[in-house]
């Protein structure tokens, strides 16, 4: 799975979700920060991570 480092996971999640992109809920972890998985139209999964 390809992982992207992002500066604001919640803002990106809101933008993707409102644009109709299939997303999974944001997960928060003390060690790894906030992250979520999203899917492209072909069903490929991508991970977005905001390091705290």
Mean pLDDT: 95
Radius of gyration: 10 Å
One letter per element, helices H and strands E, the order comes to EHEEE
Number of strands: 4
Number of helices: 1
Termini separation: 21 Å
Q: What percentage of residues falls in helices of 4 or more residues?
A: 10-25%
- The portion of residues forming beta strands comes to 35-45%
- What is the fold-level CATH name, i.e. the topology? 2,3-Dihydroxybiphenyl 1,2-Dioxygenase, domain 1
How would you sum up the global shape? globular
Task: Identify the CATH homologous superfamily.
Answer: 2,3-Dihydroxybiphenyl 1,2-Dioxygenase, domain 1
Give the count of structural domains.
1
- What structural class should be given to the helix and strand makeup? alpha+beta
Strand order of the main beta sheet, please? Answer: 1-4-3-2
The biggest sheet, with number of strands, parallel, antiparallel or mixed sense and barrel status, is: 4 strands, mixed
CATH 2nd-level architecture: Roll
Q: In terms of per-residue confidence, which ranges show pLDDT below 50 for 5 or more consecutive residues?
A: none
């Amino acid at each position: 799975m390809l992982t992207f480092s992002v500066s604001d996971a919640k803002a990106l999640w809101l933008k993707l979700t409102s644009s109709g992109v299939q997303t999974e809920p944001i997960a928060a972890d003390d060690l790894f920060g906030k992250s979520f998985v999203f899917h492209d139209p072909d069903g490929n999964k991508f991970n977005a991570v905001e390091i705290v």
